[in-house]
């Protein structure tokens, strides 16, 4: 009977997961529709920026313009959906958390959007102009004539901006995993060398092959990791204190006069 109950529990979890994924897809689709309406003003803003105004961008395919609109709408949809994705993740794992942990984890959801927008701003206004300036300087130094396609320009931009924006969620991910007792600061400190290597590798992959770009991306990522360790330690200490208080409560001797 217990095996059957376990099987039912697994099927219930899978059903719950499917429901959460459907909810996410519905909101993402709605975000795509909203993004299509916002794509033109966002496109105009991006082309009027200092990074783009010196380029004459070309369409090399009949689908280039439509493709750019879809990429912009997908980014808009991701911005809209990411807090909802975080909420659905919380709702899926919530039943396995303590009531206090559930309330605390729910408070993180609005910060998912804040950190994502901070990552987009950092990547677009700092990293992207620097990367574009470097690649353009190399092109000019080689005596090549600059003829860029609109798809190449936006693909280059999004390949830098989106990964960095997602990496800015690292502190919240660590806080959440610490809350549900999957991670703790001791484990994070043991993983520091491997984590540093992974973050440096990511920074090198998503930036142009020059030391300055790698450095300016690597340093914020390493600081984000250390900040994640710090907040994990704060949560972990509170968890230990709560566990000790609970154990002390159960160890209290009963009053013989009762």
TrEMBL record:
It is a multi-pass membrane protein. Its main location: membrane. PROSITE patterns: TATC. Keywords: Cell membrane, Membrane, Protein transport, Translocation, Transmembrane, Transmembrane helix, Transport. One of its GO terms (cellular component) is TAT protein transport complex. InterPro entries: Sec-indep_translocase_CS (IPR019820), TatC (IPR002033). The chain crosses the membrane at residues 21-42, 62-87, 108-132, 152-174, 194-212, 218-236. One of its GO terms (molecular function) is proton motive force dependent protein transmembrane transporter activity. GO terms for biological process: intracellular protein transmembrane transport; protein transport by the Tat complex. It is found in: Cell membrane; Membrane. The keyword Ribosomal protein does not apply. It comes from the Bacteria. Part of the twin-arginine translocation (Tat) system that transports large folded proteins containing a characteristic twin-arginine motif in their signal peptide across membranes. PANTHER family: SEC-INDEPENDENT PROTEIN TRANSLOCASE PROTEIN TATC, SEC-INDEPENDENT PROTEIN TRANSLOCASE PROTEIN TATCD. Forms a complex with TatA. Belongs to the TatC family. This is Sec-independent protein translocase protein TatC. It comes from Paenibacillus glacialis. The gene is tatC.
